[in-house]
Fold this protein.
Amino acid sequence: MIDEATTPESFKMGQKFEDYVREYLFVSNYYDLLEKTHDYNSNSKDYVESSLKPDFKFRDKWTKKEFYVEAKFRTSDYKGKIVWCNDKQLSRYQEYHKKQPVFLILGMGENPKYPEFLSLISLNQAKYTGLFPSIVEKFEIELDKPVTSKILWGRN
């Protein structure tokens, strides 16, 4: 109960969206979950350094390729761009991307459990902390539908 009260709203929204990503998009039928970052409450008690990695590391059951997914949920844009990370985060994600693919799954809307828009973007295309809506829209994916191998690797 106390944990719920002390967790910042932005972290609650992020956790809800991460749950959505695993339940509906990167489903266990298609992807093995290899790593997942720790939640706010775990990290506030004893910070786990691996939390600096992207949110998920998966293995595609079909291709056996391993990759990372960073899940971000936003309710609106800021000055005409969708700001999905800061400079330090982008730099870190780019370092991981040099070794294994990193994908950004971006959800938008009012409720992270029920996004109104989804975009799946390889870090090859998500090169900046803020992305123009026209870029994000190019990589739109269907709501509530699992991301298949074909969809995923067609974006690399």
